[in-house]
Amino acid sequence: MLNGPCGGYHKELCEDLRLGCVWIEAFNRLREFGKEKELFKLKLDSMFKIRDYKPPRGRLRDYIYSRNKVFLIYEYVPKKDLDLEMLENDLKQIFGFYEGLDIVQNPGGRPLADPLALASIAKKLYPDKKIGIQITGRDYDRDGLVSHILAALSTGIDTIVATTGDLKFHEKRSYGVWDLDSPRIIYLIRLINDLGRDYAGRRVYSGKNKILVGGSLNPYLDPLEPEIYKIKVKLEAGAYFFITQPIFNKETLEKLFSYINRILWLEPRDLDIIVAVSPILDEKTLKFLRERSGVKIPERLIRSLKNNDRRSILEDFVSHVIDLLTEVEDLIENKILYISSYGDLEAGLFIAERLKQVF
After folding, report:
1. Mean pLDDT across 139-165
2. Domain that residue 205 falls in
3. Angle at CA 110, nearest 5°, toward 317 and 4?
């Protein structure tokens, strides 16, 4: 990875806690001399023959329009036993409440159905909906990524969220192969999308379809500064938007925007940041968020979880989200909400139905 750490570090440790993160070690060392910014400039390896392209800045607001107060996007995690009939039934339910769909790729390193194939079916069935996929750099070489991007363009997919990708764990061993990190994937998508050429300068696309490419944003990283600097790198690479990890309180957004303003000299309205929210339905998820990710969970959600009543937990979560949206109304200009229920479609539908009644 040439363009900074992935989004899994914690202090000077990798997400594999047995390993150190050399990027954070380098960042901390350079910060002692006031030179940490030098780490964060878009770096392209020698295989990129087109190196001087400056992707024009685009805004998500120019492409997403909704008559509703809030535009809802659902994060779809393919089921292990998914078949075509099940997919079509899921899509019918999802688009009864949601305007957008984002299909993840192998979260946590788990092998699941390729999101591109599923998104292609979804786009054919629901051409007027905004449908996107996630692409990770893990286990794909750049030619494989080019093929994926071309297929997405040819089928009319609307968005791609480019991520470096989670480590895979097996029998206490972490592994994975990376050719490109997320900023270089973003740049590659813009080369193909804007110029019709791949990393080697070869003409690969001449169609009219366009894709908006975005990145992920983790406001819980410690230290947070490298993640903020990477926003600048991803903007330079051509990112249109950023999707946050699940937000649970206004203070998290205030801290995030404060860092963005102080480090990048940007206001919240200068970026298209999509706020994600996610219900906590069990103690295992609560423990992971608090202990591994450092997320401060509101007491009302913790108390709700102790009731051990699923419907009550979801009702309390929806009430919390409504209050949160009211509290952060002055912080976010785009009223786009990304709902992740960790593959629990029933919960995702319940949340969206309740929110639609209010917004």
Report:
1. 94
2. 22-358
3. 85
